[in-house]
Amino acid sequence: MTEEPVLRVTGLRREFGGVVAVDGVDFEIPRGGSLAIVGESGSGKSTVANMVVGLCAPTAGTITACGRDRSRPARSAKERRLRGREVQIVFQDPYASLDPRHCAEQTLDEVLRLHRADDGKQQRQARVAELGDLVGLDARQMRARPRALSGGQRQRIAIARALAAEPEVIILDESVAALDVLVQAQVLNLLADIRERTGVSYLLISHDLGVVRQITDETVVMRRGRIIERGPTADVLAHPRQPYTQVLRDSVPHAGWKPTRALRALTEGAQPS
Ligand SMILES: Nc1ncnc2c1ncn2[C@@H]1O[C@H](COP(=O)(O)OP(=O)(O)OP(=O)(O)O)[C@@H](O)[C@H]1O
């Protein structure tokens, strides 16, 4: 018997007024797996992420995490807590999502109070130290306010905060997009290492195929709210079947990069040939 996927999404749809942002999206992530959603700006990636984590309700379709349905808003604080142990999200800008008055220790302690209510102060302190170690923050950094830390260090706190709830799935919504290349590489290594050590699954939202290549097993490509291509990440990147995916791949900026005619056609709404 095959194991139940940790996350399954079927027929997902979201409308905003007259705009269909997401239309008939299906995918699943096996336990410990890592799936990327790629696509140009406005293709519906973040709307899918927000529906999975529960920030936005689907117009239609189902979302199941750890075998439990989460397609409709949670009806109680207990249900919200339970869902928080299934799926967490890390956004692009940790500065906006971290409380500027709290150091990492306080931020993590707050999550532990919520999700490990039976633990005493000492157990929580030990767990906070463990989480700091896991994301590579030293004692000084754990006691500093967010504004005294670098972007990479702040993003490590955001990752530790997501891990504190011991979720089965972490959504990484452009989580390394704002970091410079060197720090981005360090955080990507860290994420790969965490997956190996904890068995957590990732749903990675990214427009950067270089990032996708490094930490995902499978990729789906979205265009105008629909999935147009899917497969193992290495195959999708090496042998894209859709012209759109080819254009996405070929337009990854590098030294001396100039937009191709196909990319210009795409951004102007025409079908690339
Ligand atoms: N709250 C909202 N109200 C109205 N329209 C929305 C809302 N959120 C998203 N949309 C629309 O839904 C579509 C998909 O947006 P979404 O943010 O999911 O795309 P994306 O692929 O994540 O883009 P980006 O990479 O730029 O973040 C867009 O046309 C967007 O304008």
Task: Please describe what this structure looks like.
It is globular, with a radius of gyration of 19 Å. The chain has helices spanning 45-53, 77-84, 94-97, 104-115, 121-134, 139-142, 151-164, 181-198, 209-215, 233-238, 243-250, 261-267; strands at 7-16, 19-29, 34-38, 60-65, 68-69, 87-90, 169-173, 201-206, 218-223, 226-232. It has one domain: 3-Layer(aba) Sandwich (Rossmann fold), CATH 3.40.50.300. The strands form 2 sheets. A 6-stranded mixed sheet has the order 6-7-8-3-9-10, sandwiched between helices. A 4-stranded antiparallel sheet has the order 2-1-4-5, with helices on one face. The model is unreliable at 254-259 and 266-273 (pLDDT under 50). The N and C termini lie far apart (43 Å). The chain has 273 residues and is of the alpha/beta class. It is built from 12 helices and 10 strands. The structure holds adenosine-5'-triphosphate. Adenosine-5'-triphosphate is lined by residues 16, 19, 21, 39, 41-47, 207. Adenosine-5'-triphosphate binds next to strand 2 and helix 1. It holds the Pfam family ABC_tran. InterPro entries: AAA+_ATPase, ABC_transp_ATP-bind, ABC_transporter-like_ATP-bd, ABC_transporter-like_CS, P-loop_NTPase. Belongs to the ABC transporter superfamily. This is ABC transporter ATP-binding protein. Residues 7-249 form the ABC transporter domain.
